[in-house]
Amino acid sequence: MLHDERPYLCNFLGTIYENSSRQALMNILKKDGNDKLCWVSAREHWQPQETNESLKNYQDALLQSDLTLCPVGVNTECYRIYEACSYGSIPVVEDVMTAGNCGNTSVHHGAPLQLLKSMGAPFIFIKNWKELPAVLEKEKTIILQEKIERRKMLLQWYQHFKTELKMKFTNILESSFLMNNKS
User: Taking every annotated instance into account, which residue ranges of this chain make up the domain RXYLT1 C-terminal (predicted)?
Assistant: First the structure.
């Protein structure tokens, strides 16, 4: 659906944790009625194994939505960001630090999501889900041709991102093994 109008403005399929930003996200979507324009499927308990049906629903949601909402969970970064990229659905990423050791903003000024930011990820970063209604209103004004170009740019960026990371990883492995072999 690279060149087609997508029927959903956005999507979120995931677990809603009590007193989390995900709960705030759901409240904001419902408050403005945007949950009717978005593919939303929430559950209260995390399920470790997806079924073929739930996987297909998830893939369809990504494929049929212009934006994929990526709230933090246990970690700031999650697979949803990258899966959205692979389907040309622009990630709307909650740009906040979660508890844990993935980075400390007082030490690492680019944290969280510093790798994505340093590589120019064409995402929408937000600090609070209260910003979402304005993002969705703007999204409603974008014409199909602009969305197509944006999808193409996202897919190209994602391919470049994966290639760059593969090269960096390979170089680190090679240099580590070469250095160890010289000892």
Answer: 1-178
